[in-house]
Each structure stands twice: as structure tokens, then as C-alpha cells.
Design brief:
The complex is a heterodimer of chains A (about 110) and B (about 120). Chain A has about 110 residues and is mainly beta. Chain A contains no helices and eleven strands. In chain A, a hairpin with a 5-residue loop joins strand 4 and strand 5. With about 120 residues, chain B is mainly β. Chain B is built from no helices and twelve strands. In chain B, the strands form three sheets. In chain B, strands 2, 5, 6, 10, 11 and 12 form a six-stranded mixed β-sheet that branches. In chain B, strands 3-9-8-7 form a four-stranded antiparallel β-sheet, with no helix packed on it. The chains are: A mainly beta (about 110), B mainly beta (about 120). Chains A and B meet through strand 5, strand 9 and strand 10 of A and strand 5, strand 6 and strand 10 of B.
């Protein structure tokens, strides 16, 4: 049971380059999320999706785009990477949107922009 | 808005010591409360949760009680082990509108346990 899988796990980008982070979940979850984790700041929500074909902005969406073409996948794109986007990115998913639903996280993707 | 405040870290303890990590929150609605743990090099794992006032979440010897009157959800363990060394995050989720399922996190507390 893979759960939530993120690729790639590590990446170094030059300023201005673009890239896509892929998140896949095999739990048939409706809700998917992208967070970023920065030292001393906990995790902050970038974008989320409440079902296939839907996306919505979270707390820190600027500089990122997302797509949810298939229920099991949630892609996070950086069109023109900036050093401020150096962070650890976590994808997560949950069955429903109720507050009691457990949110499951992937292992993280370490991104460095130089 | 919603927010979570955790005690400043890092916290360093000897094995078998008692652990408390304080967590307080502010929320616009009626939240569910969570503790997540992140072991070195890994993603976050749900440690325990509580969905209503006075509920006690527990797992792996850790406990936390949802205290609505003090807006707190402090994490405790009676006897820590070296394997408990990790970063601990307090989080909340509030029902209603577009907030369903989204977590608001505290800044995390680094715990190091020495033999």
C-alpha cells in the first residue's frame, strides 16, 4: 500500500527554470493538498483540490500552479522558479473534507533554487 | 483567522523523562485538533487527534486532551525514548465553507532524546 507518493524527492533548479512536482495517491481520496514547509514556520497550504478537475488557492499560492486531471494525481508546477521557493514540499490527501478526516502526507520533495 | 502556537524548541530530554509540548490555538469555528510527528527525513504522520471538547487522543504512549476553556491541546508522554526524537506539529482543522479538510499548523517543536 503506497499511500501518497511524491516525485521527485530532490531537485536543484536554477532561477527562472520551470518544473513540476507529481503527487499520486492510491487511496481513492477526493481531497488533495500541496503544502510547503519552511524552518520555524510549520506547513503552509499552497493549493488544494476537492475532487477531480477542481483546484483552489490556499494560503501561499503565488508563483505556483496546480492541476488535477485525474483523481489520483495532483501536480504542482513552478513556471519560473525563484530562490524564495526553496523549500520542502509535501503532498497530502484525505477521503473527505470533514474536520475529523485524517490527512495523509507524502514523504516530501526537497527543492533548492539557486 | 485560525492559528496555532506551539512552545518554542528545541526540547532536549534524557530517556525516560516526562514530556510536555504546549499547544494553544485560536479558531473562527469549532476545530478538530491534531498532533503530527515528522521523523528525520520522512513525511508527517498523524500521531493523535481529538474532534470535540474534553476528548483525549492517545497513541504510542502520547496523550493530548482537547481543552476548549483554555483553547489548548498539550502533548504529553510519561517516559520518552530515543526513538521519539522528531519534530512535533500541532494542527487544527475547522469545518465550514472552503475550510474543509485544510490544516493550520503550528511552527513545530524539535524534540531530541538522549540515552
Amino acid at each position: 500500500n503506497a499511500g501518497v507518493t511524491q516525485t521527485p524527492k530532490f531537485r536543484v533548479l536554477k532561477t527562472g527554470q520551470s518544473m513540476t512536482l507529481l503527487c499520486a495517491q492510491d487511496m481513492n481520496h477526493e481531497y488533495m493538498y500541496w503544502y510547503r514547509q519552511d524552518p520555524g514556520m510549520g506547513l503552509r497550504l499552497i493549493h488544494y483540490s476537492v475532487g477531480e478537475g477542481t483546484t483552489a488557492k490556499g494560503e501561499v499560492p503565488d508563483g505556483y500552479n496546480v492541476s488535477r486531471l485525474k483523481k489520483q494525481n495532483f501536480l504542482l508546477g513552478l513556471e519560473s522558479a525563484a530562490p524564495s521557493q526553496t523549500s520542502v514540499y509535501f503532498c497530502a490527501s484525505s477521503y473527505g473534507g470533514g474536520t475529523g478526516n485524517t490527512i495523509y502526507f507524502g514523504e516530501g520533495s526537497w527543492l533548492t533554487v539557486v | 483567522g485560525d492559528s496555532v502556537t506551539q512552545m518554542e524548541g528545541p526540547v532536549t530530554l534524557s530517556e525516560e523523562a516526562f514530556l510536555t509540548i504546549n499547544c494553544t490555538y485560536t479558531a473562527t469555528g469549532y476545530p478538530s485538533l491534531f498532533w503530527y510527528v515528522q521523523y528525520p527525513g520522512e513525511g508527517l504522520q498523524l500521531l493523535l487527534k481529538a474532534t470535540k471538547a474534553d476528548d483525549k487522543g492517545s497513541n504510542k504512549g502520547f496523550e493530548a486532551t482537547y481543552r476548549k476553556e483554555t483553547t489548548s491541546f498539550h502533548l504529553e508522554k510519561g517516559s520518552v525514548q530515543v526513538s521519539d526524537s522528531a519534530v512535533y506539529f500541532c494542527a487544527l482543522s475547522v469545518a465550514g465553507g472552503t475550510s474543509y479538510g485544510k490544516l493550520t499548523f503550528g511552527q513545530g517543536t524539535i524534540l531530541t532524546v538522549h540515552p
